[in-house]
Amino acid sequence: MATKAGLRRIEGRVFIDASGDADLTAYAGFGFETAGEVEPAQTLTTTFRMANVDLARRRALPRAELVRRMTEAAASGRYDLPRREGSDHVTPIEGVTATIMTRLESYRREPDGRIVNITDPDFLTAAEIAGRRQALEYARFLVDCVDGYERAALVALGTQIGIRETRRVYGDYRLTREDVLSARQFDDQIGLCGAPIEDHRAGPDTRWQYLPEGQAVGIPYRTLLVRDAANVLVAGRCFSATHDAHASVRSMAQCMAMGQAAGTAAALAAAAGRDPRDVPVPQPPRPPPAAGAILELRADA
Ligand SMILES: Cc1cc2nc3c(=O)[nH]c(=O)nc-3n(C[C@H](O)[C@H](O)[C@H](O)COP(=O)(O)OP(=O)(O)OC[C@H]3O[C@@H](n4cnc5c(N)ncnc54)[C@H](O)[C@@H]3O)c2cc1C
Hints:
By secondary structure, the protein is an alpha+beta fold. It folds into two domains: 2-39 and 165-278, no CATH class; 48-157, no CATH class. The chain is built from eight helices and 16 strands. It has helices at 23-28, 55-59, 63-75, 121-145, 177-181, 243-249, 252-272, 291-300, and strands at 2-3, 6-7, 15-17, 32-34, 48-51, 87-90, 97-100, 107-109, 115-117, 153-157, 167-169, 189-193, 197-199, 207-209, 217-220, 232-234. Strands 6-7-5-10 form a four-stranded antiparallel sheet, covered by helices on one side. The protein is globular, with a radius of gyration of 22 Å. Bound molecules: flavin-adenine dinucleotide (FAD). Flavin-adenine dinucleotide (FAD) is lined by residues 18-21, 23, 45, 47, 100, 162-164, 236-237, 250-252, 255. The site of flavin-adenine dinucleotide has 17 residues, from helix 7.
């Protein structure tokens, strides 16, 4: 471990890599996929907050009109807005909104095929600078062009640029797009995810693909077990999934469920002197389908 006091050696029976970027897995030499290798990686976003927003006036502006104005402002050449459908959200503080609007490329491919992303300190620094510049541009657009923002001002930038995807480990199982879109259930699932595949690729829009109405995909425990290691689990956005499956299951609540499961499994394994692979994952009885679902099935039959 690298600390202010220099390098420290840490020993343990079981390790959990919750670094988002699978740092432990990468340093240990275990297998992972770098986002961008197979499919385009998700972009970066510097979030920012605006204060003194007239929320009543802002709420009266439909989303489609916000998108239209963004598109028009970008086309005019007066504003540099790579993404044309970002969102702004109310916060617990009256008159303060939080935005998810900026969009930056999260990697580049070198001539030798190597991918450079924010795990490279120089790339990260450049992205932080560019993201903050872009945030100022979106704030200028909001003040100039969006109802309710006329007297608003930018008051905060995200402490760090928002990173969606860097390294995804190879686990004992790799969750796929087909698993997500068919809401597949697993014998060893430790959580559920109903979030759509939300793919923030480079370009003006975001691609959304939804699971069947009212259904959720299971998150197998095996996606947290690092394939090449005996005693390493992961939790969070570096879990074992393809690009598309990750674009659904990387959501916050699902990352928390993974953390709960990995922590519990690691504690059970350490206490019993067992391999995390041997920790049983008992499944609670699944509730019968809701009455509406039964009626729908009968109607289809
Ligand atoms: C702009 C943006 C908007 C989003 N919006 C939503 C949303 O509306 N809803 C939703 O559900 N999800 C959203 N997500 C997705 C979600 O927030 C993330 O996928 C999720 O929070 C990832 O959690 P994590 O703990 O795996 O990784 P991270 O949140 O990246 O946390 C990793 C932690 O590990 C620490 N760390 C990293 N490396 C090391 C190291 N070497 N040593 C020690 N510590 C280290 C970091 O400091 C950090 O605290 C959004 C993501 C972004 C970027």
